[in-house]
Amino acid sequence: MQAEAIRSRNAGLVVAARAGDRGAFDELYRNYARMVHGILLARVPHDAVEDLVQEVFLQAFRQLPRLRDASAFGGWLAAVARNRARDHFRRVRPSSELSDVHAAPGNLTAEVEAAAALSAIRGLPEAYRETLILRLVEGMSGPEIAERTGLAHGSVRVNLHRGMKLLRERLKGRSTHAEP
After folding, report:
1. Mean pLDDT over all residues of the chain?
2. Where is 10: in which H helix or E strand?
3. What pLDDT shows up at residue 154?
4. What is the pLDDT of residues 95-142, one digit of tens each?
5. Given CB 3.0 to 4.6 Å as the disulfide criterion, which of 25, 38, 97, 148 pairs with 133?
6. What are the residue ranges of CATH 1.10.1740.10 in the chain?
7. CA–CA distance, 32 with 9 (Å, rounded to integer)
8. How many CB atoms lie within 10 A of CB 175?
9. Which pLDDT score is estimated for 50?
10. Which CATH number applies to 97-180: 3.30.1510.10, 3.30.1490.100, 3.40.50.2000, 1.10.10.10?
């Protein structure tokens, strides 16, 4: 029931933002910025994410009058973010964020370890990648991910469970390959 109340509140904010209420759009930004950040982080280089978050919200602001169902804002915004990530690669040549993340685990700095984990997550299937980043990086709960993205609670639960299993396997494989 709480998710329905949040969805209804956000739908009211969408209606107000369409009518020109900047404060309502600011609140939508605060409610959905972590989700957009996570979706982009799952797809584009880390150094491009912050700018792309702003571009997604600017595009959403401009296209808000086209959104037919105000209660579908979260899923619609998630789609805008995914499309913006695809567009990013059409405009920019791909580059590697780190040249080598296969050093011995005991010698890795926290930053390099985080980059290695992010790289492993990015190697997972899209559904798992996105939900894991929203959970592990953005700190969103399963119900919050479902409510924000428009996914079913059961789908989020399954994606998190299967994604964590795959991630553990990949990270375990990485650490055994890195040892002499």
Report:
1. 85
2. helix 2-18
3. 94
4. 444 444 444 455 557 777 778 788 889 889 888 998 999 998 899 999
5. 38
6. 1-95
7. 13
8. 12
9. 95
10. 1.10.10.10
